[in-house]
Write a structure and sequence with these properties.
By secondary structure, the chain is mainly alpha-helical. It folds into 6 domains: 1-77; 90-172, Serine Threonine Protein Phosphatase 5, Tetratricopeptide repeat (Alpha Horseshoe); 181-252, no CATH class; 260-336, no CATH class; 338-461; 470-525, Winged helix-like DNA-binding domain superfamily/Winged helix DNA-binding domain (Arc Repressor Mutant, subunit A), CATH 1.10.10. The protein contains 31 helices and no strands. It has helices at residues 4-20, 23-32, 34-40, 42-51, 54-59, 62-72, 96-112, 116-132, 135-140, 145-158, 162-179, 182-198, 202-209, 224-229, 231-243, 247-257, 267-281, 284-296, 300-304, 306-322, 326-333, 342-357, 360-373, 378-394, 398-415, 426-435, 445-455, 470-480, 485-492, 496-510, 515-525. Helix 10 (145-158) packs antiparallel against helix 11, helix 18 packs antiparallel against helix 20 (306-322) and helix 21 (326-333) packs antiparallel against helix 22 (342-357). This is Regulatory protein, luxR family. Pfam families: GerE. InterPro entries: Sig_transdc_resp-reg_C-effctor (IPR016032), TPR-like_helical_dom_sf (IPR011990), Tscrpt_reg_LuxR_C (IPR000792), WH-like_DNA-bd_sf (IPR036388). Keywords: DNA-binding, Transcription, Transcription regulation.
Length: 529
């Protein structure tokens, strides 16, 4: 229902039904046109639901959840809760629609609170209830199903269940097409585009984006529905720009559409994309501050679990890599628990940190398994191949390095994932390009490499000559020999506090976090030779 006049007519029809106190008509109009009314005039639908008599609400408790949701929407200047909360008493009705709305509302409340295991259980229960329902009951509530599947998809996506989320968004999209639910038709297409984009499946993502209005910045500020329900399409386009090294275009999309207040479900992804741009914009510290502020203002469970925690961890690691602080980058990734495919991206980030510090053996231990298990994620394979090429090159295996790099180029060019070529240093990139036969550069690979040379923001070139003072070198030498802090203090005739202070300085300069990493850095950089 894309015609504004048609939406306006439905809005007027709803107001007339409220004026007549025809509560059966009010319920039918709202249920069949929920999304259209939210787009056309959210205040009207909010007032209509609030006007339902207590007896009607008691008999149809789904309207309690509807009131909670409508009060949560960022519309107008009226006070609203910062997080969606479900306040409906359980088990007031056995009707299928009421059962599904109750379970979905509880799942949504648990999701925004970070209690993802509980949220997934409620979605599973709702799915089972729908599967057990009769065909007649399903047909009767068909206009509500697109919104329910969309909410189930959000829960599964937040929990890292990308395959299951894809199924929910696909169901939401198909049912929205049948029932004329324009809002869910477009928002679910955007969500499907985002899932494909983050996996590096560019062609599939663009096919879904074709079903969503273009994300070009409008002449006037976009309304809240575009920022809230269209956010996944905007995020998909922004990441696509980053992949093509179109940094200014990506930043423009984020500046116009990516409002954390209007799209609270995707706060971590928005900050992750900001972090991806920091190597180009040079504002790593500012984005780190934004991340810390966002984390502190949200429930600990929300920031420590699920896909949001993963995006925050990778964003912080990216920023610390840009600031040449590998120890802090490692700490940012520490303690993350995940399952594929989320774990692949965490492992790639760890490999980039190891590449930054020159630990090629650690890079190899990560990327070689990824090349065999992450075949469905083109982004992972592309970046792993590029990193693998560098380990082969530095190990003296030039032929193998050239072959791996050409495989990476073919994949990167087909999906336009040019950013995958920037996960290494510029010097390594140039050395690998030199291994590519001239004939192989005659096609599309040549222009692609030119684009990367011109626009790419590469992995920083950390200086391998660490400026340690004579006393710091002495402390480091004792540490590597196996001495304790007390033993080092006795041997150098200083206090233990002095030794601890000097060790903190050494760790900071080496970009390490403990004795074991310091010992590895000494061997890798030849500091005490």
């Amino acid at each position: 229902m894309s015609d504004p006049s048609e939406r306006s007519a439905i809005s007027q029809e709803l107001q007339d039904a409220v004026s007549r106190a025809d509560w059966d008509a009010v319920q039918t109009i709202v249920e069949r046109n929920w999304s259209a009314l939210i787009i056309a005039d959210p205040a009207v639908i909010r007032d209509a639901v609030a006007a339902l008599p207590d007896a009607v609400v008691a008999a149809n408790p789904r309207w309690i959840s509807a009131q909670n949701y409508l009060s949560y929407l960022p519309v107008g200047d009226a006070p609203r809760p910062l997080r969606f909360r479900d306040t409906a008493p359980p088990g007031l009705s056995s009707a299928l629609i009421d059962v599904l709305v109750e379970l979905t509302s509880r799942a949504a409340a648990a999701r925004v609170a970070g209690r993802l295991d509980r949220a997934v259980r409620w979605v599973d229960e709702a799915r089972d209830a729908l599967g057990d329902a009769t065909d007649e009951a399903v047909v009767e509530m068909q206009y509500s199903l697109p919104d329910l599947h969309s909410q189930w998809g959000k829960v599964r996506e937040a929990a890292g269940q990308s395959t299951e989320a894809f199924r929910e968004y696909q169901d939401a999209h198909d049912l929205a097409a049948v029932t004329g639910n324009e809002l869910i038709y477009q928002s679910s297409a955007g969500s499907l585009a985002w899932l494909h984009t983050i996996a590096g499946q560019t062609a599939e993502a663009e096919a879904w984006l074709d079903r969503v209005p273009r994300g070009d910045p409008p002449a006037e500020a976009p309304d809240w529905t575009s920022k809230r329900y269209g956010i996944t399409a905007h995020l998909s386009r922004a990441l696509g720009h980053i992949d093509r090294l179109e940094y200014d275009e990506a930043r423009e999309v984020l500046d116009v559409y990516a409002d954390v207040a209007k799209a609270p479900d995707y706060w971590a992804i928005i900050l992750y994309l900001r972090a991806r741009l920091a190597r180009h914009t040079g504002d790593a510290w500012r984005v780190l501050t934004q991340i810390d502020s966002a984390v502190q203002s949200r429930p600990p469970e929300l920031t420590a679990n699920g896909i949001s925690a993963h995006f925050v961890a990778v964003a912080r690691a990216e920023l610390y890599i840009e600031l040449e602080q590998p120890a802090r980058a490692r700490q940012a990734l520490g303690g993350q628990r995940s399952t594929p495919p989320s774990t692949y991206y965490l492992q790639l980030e760890q490999a980039k940190i190891d590449m930054l510090t020159g630990d090629l053996q650690a890079v190899t231990r990560i990327v070689e398994p990824l090349l065999t298990v992450a075949t469905s994620a083109q982004r992972v394979i592309a970046e792993a191949l590029v990193l693998h090429s560098v380990t082969q090159l530095r190990g003296g295996w030039e032929r193998e390095a050239g072959e791996a790099f050409q495989q990476a180029l073919a994949l990167i060019e087909s999906a336009r994932l040019y950013s995958a070529l920037t996960v290494i240093r510029r010097g390594d990139f140039d050395a690998l390009v030199a291994l590519v036969p001239a004939g192989a550069l005659a096609g599309a690979a040549g222009p692609a490499l030119d684009r990367v040379r011109e626009r790419g923001s590469f992995l920083p070139e950390m200086d391998s000559t660490v400026p340690l003072s004579p006393r710091e070198r002495s402390v480091l030498a004792e540490l590597v020999s196996g001495a304790s802090v007390a033993e080092i203090a006795n041997r150098l005739f200083v206090s233990q506090n002095t030794v601890k202070s000097q060790l903190r300085s050494v760790y900071r300069k080496l970009g390490v976090a403990n004795r074991a990493e310091a010992e590895q850095a000494v061997g890798r950089l030849g500091l005490l030779d």
